[in-house]
Design goal:
The structure holds 2 protein chains of 2 kinds. By secondary structure, chain A is mainly α. Chain A has a domain of 109 residues. In chain A, 63% of the residues lie in helices and 5% in strands. Chain A has 14 helices and 7 strands. Chain B has a domain of 75 residues. In chain B, a hairpin with a 4-residue loop joins strand 3 and strand 4. Chain B has a 3-stranded antiparallel beta sheet. Chain B is of the alpha+beta class. The chains are: A mainly alpha, B alpha+beta. Chains A and B meet through helix 2 of A and strand 2, strand 3 and strand 4 of B.
């Protein structure tokens, strides 16, 4: 509903939002995403006021939205960048579109509108919780006590247990959440030493790390709960966890880009086998994996150049990833249906991909 | 503020601009959300667009609008001023094309006002 033209200009000048692109473009991306989200919320309020301004739920909703619009820019941005807010916005937008089309406010929409003050209260309470675990100063570390809007939308990635007592759950899985927090802190420190831009940008796109040792994945994220990263206990080394965090960070950056422009228009159910894992994904997933593995290959180049102890593994892993990237390029280009901005974007990421193959680090054995 | 680059609108210095009828607006942060009641659609103006929208509240002539825009943005030097004026014209052309603002001329407004005289 609310469109952004800002991304196009950035992409036209070669920006891909990879960590080796300039910081300013990345922070402009975050600013634009936050602006679009808050303007979309305001647009919903204006639309609903127009069709049913006398409805008590609409009046309360409009008052809430005006209140949010009047918050300080920092407070408002913290709110609209919370993953639960995006879950709420993504449910309320289609419900509003339906109301506009039918000219009537149904029970489902009323429920979503009245959820807004509850959501604000939960987010405010969470930010004031002195027992809250965080890493990198602001990234929340959670296990089972996640916002109900996130918990509701997380399956099939992960289904939260119904037990409300997160402290019990924290202790039934081998090691505690505070211990995981320490591990995450050390790992992000390793990432900072390897590629500072990733560490500096991490908290801009990752709001919450949810550590679920019983997850049937190594790590996971999805655009329906943008800002949240799930991690299990499947990483068997700090470098393994580094890879998981860089992998999910890259997904999160691309989710933000695609909030402004879908880039990819493929809508068929065609499946593509990922050359890196053998898993099958639709084109959207294939495109995401392509972007993520380019950044991972760049990351492993840096690991190899900076850490003697990890050099052998990093070079081998890089080689493996780059082989997959080389295999993926032709299919990414031929099977993709792109928006006009997406066409330019894919050209730039394919150039990065080809450069990886050309610029093999010394000692890679390629 | 961005124009689509296709519009090459030329406005006379005495062209008067005003916000369109049935356009509601709410500012949020640097941006303004417009709701076009007739077309039932919402649109977003970025920071520069918001500044133009604020000036439009005063029903300025093109000359006044351009002058205020350049002053408020502290634009100096002939090349920068010309570039800003061109961007402003394109942007205003976009707003006109989208039905978000109305234009008239001082002379015609004056004619209407004269008719009210006894």
């Amino acid at each position: 509903m609310i469109e952004s033209g800002a991304l196009r200009k950035e992409v036209e000048r070669g920006v891909t939002y990879a960590p080796d692109d300039d910081d300013d473009a990345y922070f402009r991306l975050l600013h634009e995403v936050a602006s679009i989200r808050q303007c979309t919320m305001v647009g919903l309020a204006m639309q609903l006021h127009h069709i049913a301004g006398e409805h008590p739920a609409i009046q309360d909703f409009v008052a809430q939205v005006r209140d949010i619009a009047a918050l300080s820019s920092v407070a408002r941005r913290q709110f609209v960048e919370h993953p639960a807010f995006l879950c709420w916005l993504r449910q309320t937008s289609p419900a509003t579109a339906k109301a506009v089309e039918e000219g009537a406010i149904d029970a489902e929409l009323t429920e979503w509108l009245t959820e807004l003050p509850s959501l604000r209260a939960r987010i405010a309470a969470a930010s004031k919780d002195v027992h809250r675990l965080t890493v990198n100063e602001s990234i929340e570390i959670r296990r089972h006590d996640v916002d109900p809007l996130i918990a509701a939308i997380s399956p099939p990635t992960y289904t939260f247990k119904s037990s409300p007592d997160s402290r019990l759950n924290n202790n039934e899985n081998g090691y505690t959440l505070p211990f995981f927090r320490n591990v995450a802190e050390v790992t992000l420190g390793q990432i900072r030493a390897t590629w500072p831009e990733i560490a500096n940008r991490f908290s801009g796109v990752v709001h919450t790390l949810i550590h679920v040792p019983d997850g049937d994945f190594r790590s996971a994220s999805a655009n329906r709960y943008t800002g949240v990263v799930f991690l299990s206990s499947d990483d068997d080394s700090l470098l393994g966890l580094e890879e998981s965090l860089v992998h999910e960070f890259s997904h999160q950056v691309l989710y933000r880009v695609m909030e402004l422009d879908p880039l990819v228009l493929n809508s068929t159910d065609d499946n593509f086998q990922l050359p890196w894992s053998g898993s099958e994904r639709d084109y959207f997933g294939f495109f995401h994996a392509f972007y993520v593995y380019i950044i991972l290959a760049l990351y492993y180049s840096r690991v190899a150049a900076r850490r003697d102890r990890d050099r052998g593994f990093a070079l081998a892993r890089r080689r493996e990833i780059v082989r997959g990237i080389e295999a993926a390029v032709p299919e990414i280009v031929s099977a993709g249906q792109f928006t006009s901005t997406g066409k330019i974007f894919v050209k730039h990421i394919c150039r990065k991909a080809r450069n990886l193959a050309v610029n093999e680090p010394e000692g890679s054995g390629a | 503020m961005t124009g689509n680059g296709d519009t090459t609108s030329e406005f006379e210095p005495d062209t008067v601009f005003e916000r369109g009828i049935g356009i509601e607006s709410i500012e949020v942060g640097d941006d303004t959300v417009l709701f076009d009641i007739l077309r039932a659609r919402a649109l977003r103006l970025n920071a520069s667009g918001t500044e133009v929208w604020r000036i439009l509240d005063e029903r300025p002539t093109y000359h006044q609008l351009e002058s205020q825009f350049i002053t408020r943005n502290d634009i100096k030097g002939k090349p920068a001023t010309e570039a800003a004026s061109q961007a402003l014209r394109e942007y205003l052309g976009d707003l006109v094309d989208h039905g978000l603002i109305g234009v008239s001329h001082v002379s015609s407004v004056a004619t209407v006002e004269r008719k009210r005289e006894p």
